[in-house]
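Narrative of activities, Objective 1.

The group set out to show that a structural description can be obtained from nothing but a protein's sequence at a throughput compatible with the screening campaign. Below is one input-output pair from the validation batch, recorded exactly as produced.
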Amino acid sequence: MNRRGILTLVTCVLASSLAFIDSSVVNVGLPAIGRSLDADHAGLQWLIGGYLLPLSALLLLGGSLGDRFGRRRMLVLGIVLFALASVVCGLAPNLQTLIAARFAQGIGAAFLMPNSLAILGVTFEGERRGRAIGIWAAAGAATGAGGPILGGWLIDSFSWRMIFFINIPLASAAIYLALRNVQPDPLRVGGISLDWPGALLATVGLGAVTWALIGVTGPEGWTTEGVIGLLLGTLLLLLFVVCERRKGEAAMMPLTLFGSSDFVGLTLLTFLLYGALGCLLVLLPYVLIVAGGYSSTQAGAALLPLPLLLAVVSPWLGGLAGRFGTRLFLIIGPSVVAAGFLLMLRIGADVGYWTQVLPALGMIALGMSFTVAPLTTAIFASVDKKHTGSASGLNNAIARTGGLVGTALLGQVLAYQGASLTRAFHGAVMVAACVCLVAGACALLVHSDSGRRPG
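Output recorded for this entry:
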């Protein structure tokens, strides 16, 4: 790997780290932001959902924009938008401004993430490409793990606003490196159709459903406005499916992918499992801080074993899946995650870390290790070669959508304090455990034992 290749890799890692950090660091800051801006449970949910909504809906479009207008251009544009939105987040005088800026951050992340990976794909070849993508993924996991700790320290030492201002030097360095070291690609005026109607329908439809679910889980429950929002969002998502069908292979979500029962099962598994995991990453730091009296730094550090164990154990289990097939691992993995959620029922008013939190996190990490690599292998094996990129991108978007919907359903839990919060948390983890068991059952739809090597 020559000097330009190394600097290109550093650029892509630095750019994607912005999105990975911000997807986790705000979870630790929810209590502090809530106190500072007098935010209710719905406002706290939108701080997460406002970021995940455009990221879920526009991730595939972001990749298509890179193919059309140039990957370097869209990478830099995404970083600039993300940085400007971060400044607005840090200066936000009220909750409404902060949520709007979080939405803009999500758009920026949807532009920069797929193009940072695509740049690696066209810069490197063969074994070097695999090594570069592996480093990119590992760096993403590391920044996602370190984000809550760094964010917690910034909150405790300075202010929650610093978790957004820290993005500015990172973004500036990424833009400089991109303009200096990433090869520009030509502007393609024709030949690539952009699915703007699909992107608009997906964004507005998901937004309406999210708004309705946040209202339903609040103290007012079902209201006329909530029912209308849910019906409107559902209608728009149905129109999205119709639109994608008409666009055929030019759609950002080609429906031909769903002709495979394997892909359908894997998509359902991804949505349910990552929805439950997304709930955990929001709820656990909140419970540790509000009910357990942890500092923001302690709450961020409490999550560290999850990505560390995942990084250490997942490659080994991925190798075993290559030997014995993915289906068994995709059944076992979510079931072990469900057992980890049930262990969280032991978390009491004192919220003991070593005896209550750590064993549950370790079990969840083990279950996810059984799942992550085999799931990726199975996704690639469930479709033909010309659709592997679309299938991978869609599966990533589905995982984000699962986290978005899961966060939208947390209203009743975030509204409580003290012992009531702990009881509500217990109810949420029981539901999450059931969802994980259903996710494991979805693996039964996978008929091909992909990845298995003949003995």
